[in-house]
Sequence to fold (664 residues):
Amino acid sequence: MVIQKWLLFLFLHLHLHVLNIVAQLPDLDFGSCGENGNYTENSTYKNDLNTLLTSLPSKIDDYGFYYDSIGEVSGIMLCRGDVKLDDCRVCVYNAAQKLVQLCPIQKEVLGGYDECLLLYSNNQSIIETPSLSVRYFFSNTANASKPKEFNQELRQLLENLRDRAINGGPFRKYASGNVTDSDFQTIYALVQCTPDLTPRNCFNCLTDAYGYIPQCPCVGNIGGRIIGPRCNFRYEIYRFFADVSLEAPPPTGNDDKTAPTGNDNTAPIVQDNKKARLVIIIIVPTVIVVILTVCISVILMKKRKRKLVDIIQGTLGDDTSDVESLQYDFSIIREATENFSNANKLGQGGFGPVYKGKLQNGQEVAVKRLSADSGQGDLEFKNEVLLVARLQHRNLVRLLGFCLDGTERLLVYEFGPNASLDQFLFDQVKRSQLDWERRSKIIGGIARGIVYLHEDSRLRIIHRDLKAGNVLLDAEMNPKIADFGMARLFTLDETQGNTNRIVGTYGYMAPEYAMQGQFSVKSDVYSFGVLVLEIISGQRNICSRKGDSVEDLLSVAWLNWREETVSNLIDPILRGSSGLVGDIVRYIHIALLCVQENVANRPNMGEVLLMLSSHSLSLPVPHNPQILHFGDVNSTISESSKITDSKSICSSGNQDLITELHPR
Fold:
């Protein structure tokens, strides 16, 4: 067993270093560089850190945990309780490589992926301290339709899981489960402590973590996560974990409370009867509730989808012959993705993961695997596929086909070899490849793609989740808008709509949409304006908390515009050529026009495209944008529905890297 562990580690180590693909590893889901000092290249700390990180994959125990001090360095690593050992080792190895890349000289670093976390420091107290020391808040920003009832059920579920986890023994302190609230909505949750903690310390750590719920952005929301080096928890309204068989707790000696009398076989019979009655009492009501829930969900789903089906079929007619030509066998997709291996996983969103695949003819594809509870029927799924497949534009990602097999629903897209725009734009090394010529080309391509969706396609399509992560780059760095899973379809004479289900990503959402559920083509215009500011500045438009203050890119852009210091917003990489500054400032001007608070003041995308291409066209003076914060969202607009991809993340560290959960 020891030899197998070392061979696995040796293979991973040599393979990754020989191919030099550290830069191609998945981006961290979270990561931060602490302020506990720096180290130099040839220092003892550097050597000790290399020794620790190199030995990590081989030292992880069978339950995904390891902590140790080597010389000046102390480290803790923990994999989620349902993650397989081999996947855990790969996850930790990837996290170690990316964290060293993220924090090349810092002594204290914390980060990881959904499946694992890693912390190392020059301070041994990180091992000796059993407290929470919360580092990250993650939140799904859609609100529960009945927040009070939702929070009551959530609190009860988390407390029950905590009580189970603390008795997990010396190998794993982990528990997962679910509960159905009064609105027939299932809440899934998991809790976990590092297994070296005592039951009392684990209890205290999780209790402290629960106490942060009212303070973090996740309060009242349908999904949230709090991460610390010693314990963490997460909840969603979809299943995000796998079931695991945990160790049976040691016998207490008090389990058999019925003493035998006379014949020694009497007590077991009495106990069996009690158990049978208990099983009937528990199972029968549960089955009834499940059946009622399914029936109600089916009825609501059919009503909700009927209008979409009518619109699509009214546009495309009954011509569904193209559907068969787009359909792939499940076995072909499974083979192309190597059985959906984690090594081929490109990202994970609320509706399911995305994998890289290679078809038998050598063509590379991206495969989106929708979760089984995505709530989409066969007819609606086929119609959506047929519609999106007919969207043909050089700045839209092309849908190659789909797979519908039992509960499996897969979408097959062309593969973007340069991944998404955010992986270049927000990477300190890769961003240098984006000079102004390329950035302006990307901005123009995105604008042309949106104009096609709004004005030139057979239906008016509002994307509703336009952001850097949903813009893929082909081999020539041409932008291609991706992910139409949240798009809203209009007939050509419709201009706006209203919804109770808010989807998208905070920071990119127009205020009238996030707060009131009102959306139109101007909602995408707002998102485009935010995206342009990100492309020019090289900075994310994220919620950055510093004490009681909140900063974001729109606030900074508007402040610099008012003070006539807008050149401060430009990425330093682009400031080298003074001749380009005027063009860049014009693009900032256009972006500020797009994010104005008054919807009527925003230009449509056709006008935006004209402004971008014509330097002689005079631009109106922009009005101030509305800066949207977490507390601004009106909780009365949300409803009980499947999870949306609205993600907001605020971190508590001063230098934390804040990453969004990957889009659907």
Residues 113 and 373 are 23 Å apart (CA to CA). The domain at 321-414 is CATH 3.30.200.20 (Phosphorylase Kinase; domain 1). The mean pLDDT is 76.
